[in-house]
Amino acid sequence: MSDPTANDAPEVLSGIRVLDCSIAMAGPFAAQRLGDLGADVIKVEPTTGEWQRHAAAGGATGNRINVSFLSLNRNKRSIAVDLKSAEGREITYDLVKSADVFLQNYRPGVAARLGVDYETIRAINPGIIYVSISGYGEDGPYRNRPGQDLLLQAMSGAMLSSGTHGEPPAAAGQYLVDAVTASTAFEGVLAALFHRERTGEGQLVSVNMLDAITTLQMQELSVFTVGKVPQTRGTEPHAHVYIRAPYGTFSTTDGFIALAMPDLHVLGDIIGEPSFLGMNSETDSWTHRDEIFRKTAARLVTRTSAEWLELLGAAGIWAGPVYDYQDLVDDEQIAHNGTFIEYDHPTEGLVKTPGFPYRLSATPPRIHRGAPLAGEHTREILTELGITGVRAAELLEAGVVADEAPISAAPERTSA
């Protein structure tokens, strides 16, 4: 096919091979970005096709490829292989030998059962960069919860930064958590590739959706944790039509819960809504969306959030709490992950702020210094450029550059 963006310039990731064993959005989106930069991305999917091929967002089915899958999988080649068979695994292992990156977002434990966990892959190719994407972390109290976009949006605290006081919070108009998780994984791959270029060493890159959406809110959460300014919604709203009903946040007797794409028959049984029992979840959820939302809302407002979450969770329905920032900061999984970090800033004192959205096993991120004053390092950087003495003074005098007296103490370095 013709490429309107084609030119003779070399692609930055040309020669890099990526094995994309991920599904849905976050993993495929990250791999696509690598492909956009020239990586040879091989999508390793089941013989029946990746899950996203069969789940058309907005009902946009396409001809042979639905729009959801089309939008997340360009610049890839596909191999359909059964990883549950010994022969299928051997084919994948042969691919691993020539790969630079292996990316998966299986539920915790699945990669090991399929024989494609980090230790197995690393034994075949010690230099490989292995990317593991999860919902809440590789371990911890929430490791088995469904990593679904809406539920993570609700838990992140972000929903209560918009909307009207007393009304159910509104979700973002995009698959926000999936998107930012994809970007985070992409960043982690690039960092790990750079490290390998320097040292020849591969490593494990771990990314989870909860940390990704939390650290995205660097400014807002710092205003809350450092500036002590609470989230306060006014009486007027400040601020997906592509997901079947019911999909959103709903009032309970003591707060809100998030509910995502339940089977109508199961939901009808749990909440006591008999009209749902005669509906088809894949068709009526689109054509009767407003009706389903209203009826669901009327039923859910009769019990507490904890009661509904217990009932819905036991039935396998995707439901979760709606957090404010204090709930998020106090959460046990956040504490387990070490999502927030603290350090002493020379002028601002103790700073508690979101840390790093990914884990690099060989080259963990850390804080070298806090936010600088304007021009704090002007002279230092000029010196690195060879501009010193009289010439530096002239530039300062002319206002071409400006400096600031250096801060006397550096902040403590803190790793993830």
Describe the structure.
By secondary structure, this protein is of the alpha/beta class. 36% of the residues lie in helices and 14% in strands. The protein is built from 17 helices and 12 strands. A 7-stranded mixed beta sheet has the order 3-2-1-4-5-6-12, with helices on both faces. It has a 3-stranded antiparallel beta sheet with strand order 7-8-9, with helices on both faces. The chain is globular. The N terminus and C terminus are likely disordered.
Distance between the termini: 45 Å
| Class inferred from helices and paired strands | alpha/beta
Major β-sheet profile: 7 strands, mixed
Mean pLDDT, to the nearest integer, reads 88
Shape: globular
Helix percent band: 25-40%
- The number of E-state strands comes to 12
How large a portion of the residues is in β-strands, by DSSP E? 5-15%
User: What's the oligomerization state?
Assistant: single chain
- Rounded to an integer, what's the Rg over CA atoms? 24 Å
Strand order of the largest sheet: 3-2-1-4-5-6-12
Tell me the number of helical segments per DSSP (H or I, 4 or more residues long).
Answer: 17
Order of helices and strands: EHEHEHEHHEHHEHHEEHHHHEHHEEEHH
Q: Uncertain runs with pLDDT below 50, 5 residues or more?
A: 1-6, 406-416
Note the topology:
Blueprint: E1 17-20, H1 26-36, E2 40-45, H2 67-72, E3 76-80, H3 86-97, E4 101-104, H4 110-114, H5 118-124, E5 129-134, H6 149-155, H7 176-199, E6 203-208, H8 209-216, H9 218-225, E7 247-251, E8 256-260, H10 264-271, H11 284-287, H12 289-300, H13 305-314, E9 318-321, H14 325-330, H15 332-337, E10 340-345, E11 349-354, E12 358-360, H16 378-384, H17 389-397
Parallel strand pairs: 1-2, 1-4, 2-3, 4-5, 5-6
Antiparallel strand pairs: 6-12, 7-8, 8-9, 10-11
Helix pairs in contact: 1-7, 7-8
